[in-house]
Design a protein that fits this description.
five-stranded mixed β-sheet; 4 helices; globular
């Protein structure tokens, strides 16, 4: 019923990065429905009293003519280890509610916390986040992700990270990585590159 969605961070009643979510919503609407988006998030979102404290995950699900808001108290997952998986057919260029392709790949993670998806030899994303690598001087994010994340867009605009094409064979160049998404956007906390396994 709702083919697309946005995941939005709310902390103690404050909505984060809303302009970036609005921009992606408008882009996705134009691509998927081939028309201008009728939804303005700043007018639609009204935080219920029960979700006005703590960290909250808001899912804004939408179709061509309707939408739905889902609020959930959120506890971040601790992800340290990544399993490299390859799939050259996967497509998640928009934030689809159908995540079956990604979920199928997650079954290959073994004892690792999550997966790192490789497509046509290029590093893309994990199952729930964009990835950023540290080379000892700069933070670098793959120029060909599966999904253009809102946190990724924000950090690029602020010049805190930069884009580069990153192949799987480039992993040796980096010392560490971190994961960024709408709910984890303010802290580039390095995790040793040795935690990525084949």
């Amino acid at each position: 019923m709702f083919p697309l969605f946005e995941t939005i961070k709310i902390l103690d009643g404050k909505i984060y990065n809303l302009s970036f979510h609005q921009k992606r919503l408008e882009f996705s609407f134009q691509i998927y429905f081939q028309k201008k988006a009728p939804f303005l998030l700043s007018d639609i979102i009204n935080i219920p009293k029960d979700f006005s404290k703590g960290l909250v995950k808001l899912r804004f699900l939408y179709s061509e003519k309707s939408y739905k808001l889902e609020f959930l108290h959120y506890k971040p997952r601790k992800i340290i280890t990544l399993k490299i998986v390859e799939n050259n057919e996967i497509n998640y260029s928009l934030k689809f509610t159908d995540r079956s392709q990604i979920n199928d790949l997650v079954h290959q993670k073994g004892t690792c916390d999550d997966i790192l998806i490789i497509k046509n030899g290029f590093i893309t994303d994990t199952s729930i986040a964009n990835i950023v690598f540290y080379d000892g001087k700069e933070w670098v994010t793959p120029a060909i992700p599966l999904l253009m994340g809102t946190c990724r867009a924000k950090l690029l605009k602020e010049n805190k990270i930069k884009e580069e094409v990153v192949k799987i064979t480039d992993l040796y160049k980096f010392r560490a990585f971190c994961l960024i998404n709408a709910l984890n956007c303010n802290n580039l906390s390095p995790i040793s590159i040795i935690n990525i396994c084949y």
